[in-house]
Each structure stands twice: as C-alpha cells, then as structure tokens.
Input
Amino acid sequence: MKVIAILVLMVCAAAVAGRTSPKFDEYYTIIGIKAENKRLDNYAIQINNWPKSRGLVLIYSQDERTVKRAQARARRAVKYLVQTRGVDPTRVKWRYEAACGHEMIQLYILEPTLADPDPDPKCIR
Output
C-alpha cells in the first residue's frame, strides 16, 4: 500500500513540475456542484502536494447582472477547498475578472514568484 501511495505522489509531483501553463482547469458553472466538487478535489490534491504553490480561482460572469451569482460560486468553491479538502486558506484566493458571455471558472496553481495571470482579453471589464 505504501508503494502505491509513493507512486501516486511521484506521478502528481511530476505532473505539477512538468506543467507549462499555470492553468490547472477551466469549466463552465453549468456543470453542477457535484461535478465541480470532483474538479476541486483534484485541484486541492495538487495544491496540497506542492507546498510552495498557491491557488487562484478566477471567475467570469455571464453579464453584469450575474456578477453576484458568479462571485458566490467562487466563494463557495474556495470555502469547499479550505473546509472540506484542507487547503490552507492563505494559499488559495478567488478573484472576479469580468463579464464574458458565460459563467466560467479557471483554476490556477501558481509558483510563489509567478504573477497572477491576466484576464481573458475577449471579456469586458
């Protein structure tokens, strides 16, 4: 059992170390909470396995009328990561970006010295 756990950790570490983009995942909020939680579970595993990393949850609303709903979804995601998956709250934050024609969440895993990504240029602020 220990051998399997070590191999899983090695594969996860290699996957993070070999990334060329800090974007871990991207999805539309239409997928539902259960599907989102599965994605957040994988995200939390990667953040927790890379101790010096930080997580950034970027949220885009459909339009200016859905900003509060999109922000609530981002807050819920970060709360899930911290309270359910044990991610250190100092290592994960969320940020609203812009109205983009659809509600979308982007998950980033950033090195400590890496700047936050720029907003999607196709979306308005």
Q: What stands out?
A: The CA atoms of residues 11 and 17 lie 10 Å apart. Residues 3-16 have pLDDT under 50 and may be disordered.
